[in-house]
Amino acid sequence: MTSANTAAEQAAQKLAQGQPIASVIDPGDPAAWLALDAAVRELSRYPLHQEPPPERPPRRWLSRLLAPADAEPGVGRTSVSYDTEPGLALALCDADGHVRESALAQVPGGSALLPLIVIRCADWVTAIHNRARKHLQSALPTLTPEELAALAPLMLRVDRRERGTFATGLLEAVLRTPPYDHLKAQTISADRDTRRFAHRIAAAEQVLTPVELARTAAQDPDVVVQNRCAEAALAGVQPDAYDEVLAPLLAARSPQVRAAGVTALRKAERPAQAEPFLADRSPVVRACARYVVRQHDIDPLPLYRAWCAERGAADVPAGAPIGLAECGDRQDARLLWPLTEHPSPAIRSRAVAGLRTLDVFDAVRLIPLLDDPSPAVTRETVTSLTPSAQRIPVDHLVDRLAPDRPRHQRLAATRLLAAQGELRQLRILQTLLRDEDAKVRERAGRTVGAVPARSRP
Predict the structure, then answer these.
(1) Which tens digits make up the pLDDT trace of 142-158?
(2) In 3-state terms, what secondary structure has residue 247?
C-alpha cells in the first residue's frame, strides 16, 4: 500500500470520527481529494453482513457511519439522512451509487464539499453526474477568485477522466467572463496545469498587456507558460514598447525565452543588440543571434574570431569558442587550442567542445586535459577521446584511478577504460566494485554488469 493510500484511509477514518473536512484534507490539493474518493470507495465496498477479504482489515467504522444504527444484514444505506458534513463527504464517495445519489441531494450550496461534487461530475452513473453537474453549474459563478483558484486544479485533473470535461467547460466559461478577475487569479496559481490553462485563455482574450506577459515569460518556472507568454507578448507589442517587452525576455534564464527575445530584435531592427548573444551559453540563442545579424548583412564569423583571438583576456565571452566552431571551419582550430589553457573553466570546456565540433582531434594534446581541475573540462575531454580510447595508454588511466585523485578524474578514467573494452581493463574495473566512492563503484558496476558472465575474467 502506498503512502498516499494510507494517508487517504487515515483521512477517511478521521471523517468517520466526525472531524471537520478542513482539518482532514487540504482543500487545494487535487491528489488528496482523488485519493480520498478512491479510498472511501474501497473501504465501503463491503456491507455489514459481508466480511472483507482477509488481506484487508475490517472497516466496520465506515459501514456503521453510513448505515442506520439498527441496520440488519442486507439493509441498504440509501435512505439515511447525512446531517453532518463529514458524513456527507464519505457518502459522496461511497461504492453504492444509490448512496452517492442520496448524498448529492443533501449537499448545501457553497459547501466545503464542492471538490467532491467536481469528482461526481465524472461519475459513471448518469443520474449522479447529471445532479452533480447541476449543483456545480449553480455554485461555480458564486465563488470568489481565491475559492475558484483552490478548486481549479482538481477540475483540470478530473478533465482527464472519460466523462470529466464538463467541469472544465464550466471553468473556462467563468474565466472568459469580464472583468476577468477569476482569470487573473488563475494565472498566478501555484498549480502548473492551472497556469497553463489560464494563460491560454488570457492570451486568446488579450487580458494581459505585452509587458505583463513578458515578465511572466521571464519568471514562470514552467516551459509551456514561458513559451506561450513570450509568443503572446511579442505578437501584441507595439513599436514604442519594444524596450519594456524585450528587456525581461533578453534577461530570462530560459533559453527559449531569450531566443524569442533575440529573434524579435530582427523586427525591431536592432542587430547590434543581438551581437552579445552570439556567445550565449545556449546553442539555440546563439543560432537566433546569428540569424538576426545575418539578416542585417553582418557576418558573425569575424566577431567570433576576434573574441577567441584574445587568448588570455579575462573578458572572453564563455560561448565564443563553441560559437566559432558552429559557424567556422577546421582552420579556426588554431584559435581554439590556446583557449584550452584559458584561466576560465567555462572557456576551456567550450574550447574542447568546439574542437570536437570542428572534427579536430589530437590525442597528444587532449590527454593532458584529463587532469584539468574542472569537472566540465574533463567531461568534454572524455567525450572527445572516447571514440579513440584505444590510443590512451592503460597505465596512464590506471594512475588516475588512485584514491587521492579528484572524483571527476577517477570517473573519467573509468569511462575510458570501459570504452577500451579489453580483458585487462575489465579486470581493473572489477577491482573498483569495492571502491569507497559510491559514484566510482556505480560507474564500474554498470560496465561490468553489462558484460555477459561467461565473458568476464
Answers:
(1) 999 999 999 999 999 99
(2) helix
